[in-house]
Each structure stands twice: as C-alpha cells, then as structure tokens.
Design brief:
single chain, 8-stranded antiparallel sheet, globular, disordered N terminus
C-alpha cells in the first residue's frame, strides 16, 4: 500500500512540465485559460499523442476531446485541463495518468473523466449511480487463513475529502494548515480502540519519521506520479499521521487525499480489520463533513478511488501460483482482484510477497466489495493448495 518512491532530485528533473499545473490558479481573467498554460497543454498533448504510452489518459484524450476541454475551467477554483492531465503528460508510463484538482473537475471535464472511469471501474457508465453507503458487518466473514500459512497481513483503507476544500493542486499553504487543524481535531476526539496520537510531519524528529516509514505506517514524499499532479507542494506543511495505541488504526492527513483512514493487522482476519475501519470512519464522519457525489460516491483526488474508495488488501505468499504468473493473472481477473508488489503500486514483490486487493471500488456497496475481495482471496488460496498437491 505504501508508495514506490523516487528521490527529490528526480522531482527536480521533471522540469517545466509541472510548474504551471501545480500553481494555485493556472488560469487568469475570470475563468479564461492563460495563453502560456494553453501552449503548455498543446506541447504536452502532442508529445503524449506521439508517445507509446498505454495510459487511459492517452486512449481517451482524443484530439476532439482535447480541443473541447482545453479552454474550460472549474467555477470555484479555476482548475484547468492541465491540472487534470499534467501527471500523465509527464509520465508516459502511467496506467491512468488523470487526477481531479478539485471536486468540480469531475463534471467540468466529464468528457474525459467519464470514459476513463468506465474503463477502469469495469463498465461503470455515465448513466450509472453509486449505491448508497452500506457497510454491513465484517463479522460475517471468517478468517481467511487462521493457521497463517499464506497471509502475512491484512489492511483495509478508504479515502475521504472534506467539504469546502479542493484537492492537492489547488490547496494553498493556508488551506493545508486549516485542513490539518480540522482533521487533527477530529482524530483527537476518537475513543476506545481508536484513541491515539496525531503527529505532524512538520518538526517531526527524523529518527521517528524514519522508524514510522520503515514500519510501514507512514507515507513519504517523492512519488513522481503524484508530484507531477501537484500533490507534493509545500511539503511537509499540513501533513501528518494519527496512530492509535495498538498501531492497528491510522489516519493519514493530506498525503494523496485529505484523509486516508486505514485499519490493519497481522494475519488474515479481513472482517475484523474491516469492522475497525468502519467504526473509525463513522466516528470521524460525526466530526467532519465528507464530500459525497450523488452519482460518483465519495470524491477523491484520483478517479481510481471513487465510489466507496475502499481498498482492501492482503500481503500474501502464493509460491506455486507465482511459478505460473499467467495463470495467477487469469485467476486475479476472474475474481476481480488487483496484484501489486509488496509496497503497492509501481513496486516489486519482495520475498515472494504480493499485495493483492479488490479491483472494483464503484457500482457496489462497501459490504459487497469486501465480500468480493474475501471470496477472491479464498479462491486464490484454494488454487494455491491445488497447485501444491498436483
């Protein structure tokens, strides 16, 4: 789940392609797109179109769509198409390459976002509507690996956006400070098993920061895909982590989304981990207003996390299936699962441990997504046992 990271030097070498996209307001004159921004978009679009990129951005940003959207801006924050596509234009190896600079972008630039959402989320069409929130009970799901033969750890997370604020590319330093204050107040009110401590990144002791990162609790700066999308500005201002006493529930503040709420523990008890996350989300929802769209569900910076925004994952060892990667991929597709490296997207599998998660976030309730994930992992374990005995 943690990001595959690049050093600060590489971010500097990304060059001019990110400079306008990460400014607070790349458009001037009451919603008119600045000429320099237009020129930058034209140049970046031409390079993307000529590239060998296999991103969803390249596939769906046709010349017709580009011409239609390049002069549009969002009403409240004057976000431009450049804000949305900057990461994909800078990183031709992106899988998606598209981000929303503010909640309004999903409607203003719907001609681009809708087809990307439909393809990524497996046929969630523009006429579809995300079901109402329904968490259900994680206790309905048995432990997937009670003897600990396969699953190293289990994690369930969701993202939330606080109403009244844009996403990273449009947040000022003051916005970051205000958001952090609101989030800090909310997490400080948590009780019971969720009670813990908020630790801001600003002023954090370097040894503590390193330890939290090494223990896989804390995110860190440097992901080039997020940096090119404007998600790393003013670092580390406004960022921080809340960690409960048992270190099995945490909240990330202003990493990629305003809030990432995470529950985790060793072993394969997905239902228990899910229930802990749900009770934490519900408690925080009493303190903060989350932005939920009637059609798209919970709005997030990256369109891959829309809908429920839930990502349930296990770190799992499947040595026999690993020897047949094509078969493993077929099974993952069958069960609607996503296979990543040990540290998440853009990383390698270390020691034979893969990060496997639910692929779908949209079109299902939260409970249905956890059930799909649970049934899929159960199916992989059964296939692993069968491969071992054959």
């Amino acid at each position: 789940m943690l990001l595959h990271l690049k050093p600060r030097l590489e971010l500097q070498l990304l060059g001019r392609c990110t400079q306008l996209a990460i400014s607070r307001n790349a458009s001037k004159g009451g919603g008119k797109v600045d000429k320099e921004v237009l020129a930058q978009m034209e140049e970046g679009y031409k390079k993307l179109a000529e590239s060998k990129s296999k991103s969803l951005l390249k596939k769906h940003l046709t010349k017709e769509i580009f011409e239609k959207l390049k002069t549009k801006t969002t009403p409240s924050f004057n976000s431009t198409l450049l804000h949305c596509i900057s990461s994909g234009m800078c990183n031709h190896d992106s899988g998606v390459g598209l981000y929303a600079p503010d909640p309004e972008a999903y409607k203003v630039f719907a001609d681009l976002f809708d087809p990307v959402i439909e393809e990524y989320h497996k046929s969630f069409k523009k006429t579809d509507k995300q079901p109402a929130t329904s968490f259900g009970k994680g206790a309905d799901f048995e432990n997937l690996d009670p003897d600990g033969h396969f699953i190293v750890s289990t994690r369930v997370r969701c993202g939330r956006a606080v109403k009244g604020f844009p996403f990273n590319p449009c947040l000022t330093q003051d916005d970051y400070a205000e958001l952090e204050s609101k989030i800090c107040g909310a997490v400080s009110s948590l009780t019971g098993e969720h009670k813990g401590t908020y630790m801001p990144l600003t002023g954090m002791d370097k040894s503590l920061q390193t330890q939290l990162i090494d223990d896989h609790y804390l995110f860190k700066e440097g992901d080039r895909f997020l940096a090119a999308a404007g998600a790393s500005r003013f670092w580390p201002a406004g960022r921080g982590i809340f960690l409960n006493k048992a270190k099995n529930f945490l909240v990330w503040c202003n990493e990629e989304d305003h809030i990432r709420i995470i529950s985790m523990e060793k072993g394969g008890d997905l239902g228990k981990v899910y229930d802990r996350m749900v009770s934490g989300v519900e408690a925080l929802g009493k303190q903060l207003q989350f932005h939920r769209d009637e059609r798209l569900g919970y709005l997030t910076f990256c369109p891959t996390n829309l809908g429920t925004s839930i990502r349930a994952s296990v770190h799992i060892k499947l040595p026999n299936l690993m020897c047949e990667p094509e078969e493993m991929k077929k099974l993952a597709d069958k069960f609607r699962l996503q296979i990543r490296g040990t540290s998440g997207e853009h990383s390698e599998a270390k020691g034979g441990v893969h990060d496997i998660s639910n692929q779908r976030r949209m079109g299902l309730t939260e409970y249905e997504i956890i059930k799909e994930m649970h049934d899929g992992i159960k199916g992989l374990i059964e296939a692993e046992c069968k491969a071992k005995s054959s």
